[in-house]
Amino acid sequence: MDLLEYQAKELFRRVGIPVLPAQRIDSPADLKGLKISYPVVLKSQVRVGGRAKAGGVRFVNNTIDAVAAAQTIFGLPILGEYPQAILAETKYDVQRELYLAIILDCGLRRPVLWGSAQGGGQVEADPERLQKVVVDQDFSPFCARHLGAKIDLQGPLLPAVSEIIVKMYRLFVQWDLDFLEINPLGVDTRGALMALDGKVRLNDYALGRHPELRSLVGEQSLEGGCPRSLPLGGNLAILANGTGLTWATLDQVMALGEVPRCYASLGDGEQTGTLGRTLARSLDQVRMVGGVKVVLVNLCGEVGSWNELGAYLEQYLQQVPPPPPLVIRWGGGDLATAWQALASLPVRLTASLEEAVEQAIALAKD
Question: What pTM, to 2 d.p., does this model score?
Fold first, then answer.
């Protein structure tokens, strides 16, 4: 389950990770009682990326402009998702941006610390700058300092960022998280640090151990199939839109001597309206499995808007660390329609299941 930004920052606040003065806005009228000082930034609270590019992040200097901007943001879908709330936050003058994350690598069965001296959109543009530290023994502040040194932090910034990483790890373990990211971690002219944006993914199966989280997340539920691991393991994941199609794809892969690492059904035909969002969340879950080198996506029939689906796939492919590549089979009709929407993306697309399976197996063996 992915938290919204304001929910993630509430958890940050509890462990002492610095966050800006902020206020949740449930309607434009709430801005007339804003308790933080202008200028402020208004941020759409959705679980998908690309908010700023889509117009879901706006800076305002007074109440009149804020109300007008909020009206626009509430009416703006981002990859098909409308915000139920807006986060109003004090504007921050940042001099430098860093990237920090902790990911549960299910293949290694260990948490992995990730960091980069470049944050924000720069880390997506240059993922090779990412550095990692595997927590292969008991965690200690040395692990945090090791990551800080690997991303070339020097002077007072090294211990300051290391302290943030220690607090992130404490949060990660305390709440049984699958994923925790601060991007960017802002540094101002005085060297002070601030978590300017945050992502948190809860482990659905651990929620029963943390009933206090339910007051934070309410009755949210995760759409889409949860990838199921196979005991023999492999390095290929399978996603298909329908139970029957999922089993057919599994049979085809195993008939060629390959054992998938995980698989999931994205839902049957009546769920096509949410296919893009469901696929995006299932792809994120595949990343949590670990050890997956390629994802085989088998789609058949109506998939809704290919442009919308392409936007979700573009967002997936821009994630850091770089996710596994995609091989997509579409058995729904004119392949040119799909190619037109996906032409700019590094994906392999075919109408033949046999060809898709062969390509996926070849990539998995590289």
Answer: 0.68
